[in-house]
Amino acid sequence: MATSALVTSCFAFIAPAAAQEAGDPITVTATGLELSVDNTGQAISIIDLPEIETVQGPDLSRVLRRLPGVAISRNGPAGSFTGVRVRGAFSEQLLVLIDGVKVNDVAAPGGGFDFANVLAGSVERIELLRGPNSVIWGSDAMGGVMNLTTRQVDGISASAEYGAFDTAYATLAGGVVTDRVEAGLTGSWYDSDGFSAASTGGEADGFRQWQLAGRGRFHVSDAFSLTANGRYADGRLEQDGYPAPLYAFADTDDLQDTEEYSGRIGADYQGDRLTLRGGYALSDTTRLYTGESYGDFPYETKGRLERAELFGRFGLTDSLGIDFGADREWYGFEDSGSDRSTTLTSGHGQLSWGGPAVTLAAGARYDDHELFGDEWTFGANGALELGAQLRLRASYGEGFKAPTLYQLYSFYGDEGLNPERSKGYDVGIEKGRRDGMFFAAATLFRRDSTDLIDFDLANSVYYNIGRARAQGAELELAARPSQNLRLGLVYTYLETEDRTAGGTYQGNNLNRRPDHAVTAMVDWATPTGLMLGTDVRLVGDSYDDRGNFTRLDGFVTVDLRASMPLGDRLELFGRVENLFDAGYQTVAGYNSSGAAAYGGARVKI
User: Which terminus in the chain has less CB density within 10 A, N or C?
Assistant: First the structure.
């Protein structure tokens, strides 16, 4: 009897992405307000804290590869730029939110987000909406929307681990949850000697970072509450570069110092028919590049986004409602030679209807950019319950991405640039429940992109010319054959094509988009309480460059993990990443980690 109870408590830590905790999973990426994923036809996947803790470690990309449609590339060891591509979209075309705050780097040339700067121990939930959704979120949501929710605990939780490359990682979280107040704070520290980023180098490139995140809510009444959240991260990364006289990629004593902070204050109202959520948010990223490659001329960039926003929902009848919203964004960009800003003002509306077996929604958005003028985007989705736990869903979404301030105002910029645009379609079928004994989902998708911004090497300027298509299929499987065993599999097939008419690369595959990507997961709770698990990741071939001259070979990695709870509060854990020491590259010329072992402990009070 005691052994059975122990096994059951162990499985509180296991929840594959396709098999969520009991109850309908809730998302905010679909409308900006809480909505059951069963009430939308959009493709949404959710990973919660138990699964994040099961995977173990600070590297969030090891968790993200469990999501369908995702491909990840990294320029070397931990801390190096880590890009996430969804359904073949450019990594800069994924809108990333942390606690609902837009955090894409406004000062980066392409305006993307570097996932290397988020430690997994500070995250308790990951939501990924696959496909364009600019109707709700506006600029940057061309390929998808990801929302990361930071941790909030009731009590105290701490973990620490040590392992390969002299890596130390610790997390401490504390919080309180009462009927009126929810508040929590999480701090993380990471330090690693790393390994050489350059595949031809021998000097290790280390990374250290500390970060602090907190969020809270005060319930003024049953219907009205005040909210606040904030995050700060400070990191230093050792980098390789292109030293004289050969100017080939090799060991250098370069440094990148990155400081990020973001936050939001707001208020929520929940009435019988009316729901409102308003707030003011900001995000700021500063990067300083120094060292051998920069000499007496360090390079610094600063990007800042401020946003005033309102999301709302009004129930016209029990089955008919309208989601609406408005926002204004202020963008600021500075580097060693520029100091520029612009604004974007937007409004959107979406009508939805839900019957006993059918859910339908359609909406539109209007954006007015200070420079390029106005932009309309549209979207629609629906779902149909077929019976016998079968569910059919489909969606159409449009996305756009405003030119970044770097593309507009830098030495290489052009103020006449137009926004990039995309149109995405998908249709899928699901069987079973996400919290049940079996779940399966299959999805077909296509996205066409136009007015892509490219760099003209001959004239050293950004310009609109690119067209691209990405299409394919996604498969999700999850099964629980017994109380002690859970299985999961995520597979993505992807075809991409550069469709720029008359362009040099017309007909080529888009770079760093593998045609196949599979993650298989197994977790077993032994009769003794020992937890054993593995993730097997298979990635197909791709090309590193747009010309398709440099091939990136496919690879297979195997991660093995174990954990042992000692009572209700203490857990020991360990893992081996890349168990068979596979050699591979996700960016040509940059190393990836070989076999590496880590061990640690976790305590909850």
Answer: N
pLDDT band for 435, please (50, 70, 90 cuts): confident
- Identity at 423, one-letter amino acid code: K
> The tokens of 222 are what?
């049953």
d(CA 101, CA 265): 10
Residue 111's alpha-carbon distances to 27, 83, 92, 404, 405, in angstroms, are 25, 12, 6, 6, 9
Predicted pLDDT of residue 338: 81
Are the beta carbons of 417 and 109 closer than 8 angstroms?
Answer: no
CA atoms within 13 A on the CB side of 473: 4
Question: What is the residue whose two structure tokens read 């590339």?
Answer: 73
List the structure tokens of 296: 């007496």
What tokens were used for 71?
């491909």
Residue 515 near residue 540, CB atoms below 8 Å = yes
C-alpha separations of 418 from 164, 414, 463 in Å: 47, 10, 9
- Output the pLDDT for position 460: 82
Quick: pLDDT tens for 61-79.
999 999 999 999 999 999 9
In one-letter notation, the amino acid at residue 233 is A
- Cα 560 to Cα 372, 521, 580, 583: the distances in Å are 51, 10, 10, 17
Cα–Cα distance measured from residue 559 to residue 522, given in angstroms and rounded to the nearest whole number: 11
Percent of the chain with pLDDT over 70: 96
Is 105 within 8 Å of 331 (Cβ atoms)?
A: no
Total Cβ atoms within 10 A of residue 581: 11
Token pair for residue 386?
A: 């077929």
Q: What is the pLDDT of residue 372?
A: 80
pLDDT at 295: 84
pLDDT of residue 373: 83
Cα separation of 501 and 597, whole Å? Answer: 49
H helices of 25-179, in order, are 49-55, 61-64, 134-137
Q: What is the pLDDT of residue 24?
A: 67
CA distance 549 to 163: 37
CB 71 within 8 A of CB 585: no
Question: What gap in Å lies between CA 432 and CA 439, rounded to an integer?
Answer: 5
pLDDT, one tens digit per residue, over 505-555 is: 999 999 999 999 999 999 999 999 999 999 999 999 999 999 999 999 999
